[in-house]
Design goal:
- There is one protein chain.
- The chain has a two-stranded antiparallel ribbon with strand order 1-2.
- A hairpin with a 5-residue loop joins strand 1 and strand 2.
- The chain has helices spanning 23-30, 39-47, 65-81, 85-96, 113-119, 129-136, 140-148, 162-175, 185-206, 211-215, 217-240, and strands at residues 54-55, 61-62.
- Helix content is 55%, strand content 2%.
- It is elongated and about 65 Å long.
- The model is unreliable at 1-16 and 107-124 (pLDDT under 50).
- It folds into three domains: 23-119, Multidrug-efflux Transporter Regulator, Chain: A, Domain 2, CATH 1.10.1660; 121-179, Multidrug-efflux Transporter Regulator, Chain: A, Domain 2; 185-245, no CATH class.
- Helix 3 packs across helix 4 (85-96), helix 6 (129-136) packs across helix 8 (162-175) and helix 9 runs antiparallel to helix 11 (217-240).
- It has 245 residues and is mostly helical.
């Protein structure tokens, strides 16, 4: 997403006369309208490609006025329309290309909105037992063992959601390396602890008097989940030591 007006990591510098701000200054500007925003949130949005601040020779982030405006638009679309970041990014990129796109929130207004509606809502999709086994390339005995260890669980109607399919495929792949469900109990316990930490952060948002803040709890949950997954992956690489992983 190269934009000469803001530079970006590896893209040069902002234009002359465009004041640059530290991440702390950006946070101060945004918090009047978005009291829940944090430095980690801004860094997360950068990691997701929603903004590309300049970098000083020593590596410090420097944001232009345009960067701050873009961040505000991202946060506003999340708050007001509960849109996923992928869709928001598509919308903003289309605007920067000069495309005439409908306002956010309208039906099928954003690039990727239809794909999101059809593929990013796992609770709306259910598959049967045989379909799950086929997707995971496993048999009924393996599924019974996964369920016994709590790794996979059917929905009340007997079907399985998208996350169960993902877990089943991963457990099946790990099994090919000799890792059995009993070996994965520690991973499940760690995930449950992470979920507890996320819930501690999100619970006050769900109890907030502002309905928009309560509705934003789901987006916050997804963001924290992604950050926890990234941290787990980084810690695993660190624990394995130097070398290609």
């Amino acid at each position: 997403m190269p934009r000469t007006s803001m530079g970006g990591a590896g893209h040069g510098t902002a234009p002359t006369g465009d004041p640059l701000m530290s991440i702390g200054a950006v946070l101060g500007r945004l918090r009047d309208e978005f009291p829940e925003v944090s430095i980690s949130k801004i860094r997360f949005l950068e990691a997701e490609g929603l903004v590309e601040p300049c970098r000083t020779p020593s590596g410090y982030r420097k944001f232009s006025v345009e960067d701050v405006q873009r961040l505000a638009r991202v946060l506003r679309m999340q708050r007001d329309h509960y849109l996923p970041l992928k869709v928001i990014k598509g919308h903003l990129d289309a605007l920067e290309r000069g495309e005439d796109v409908p306002p956010p929130g309208s039906r099928r207004a954003l690039p990727g909105a239809r794909e999101h509606a059809e593929s990013d809502l796992p609770t709306a999709a259910r598959i049967g037992r045989e379909e799950l086994l086929a997707a995971a390339e496993a048999d009924g005995h393996a599924l019974a063992e996964w369920e016994a260890y709590g790794l996979v669980a059917p929905m009340p109607d007997g079907g399985y959601d998208a996350e169960s399919v993902t877990v089943a495929k991963l457990v099946s792949d790990l099994g090919r390396f000799g890792l059995e469900p009993r070996h994965l109990r520690a991973m499940k316990a760690a995930a449950e602890r992470d979920a507890g930490l996320v819930e501690q952060v999100v619970a006050p948002l769900r109890l907030h008097r502002n309905p928009q803040t309560r509705a934003h709890a789901e987006a916050t949950t997804k963001e924290l989940s992604a950050l926890c997954a990234q941290l787990h992956a980084a810690l695993l690489r660190t624990a394995l030591g130097p070398g290609p992983h």
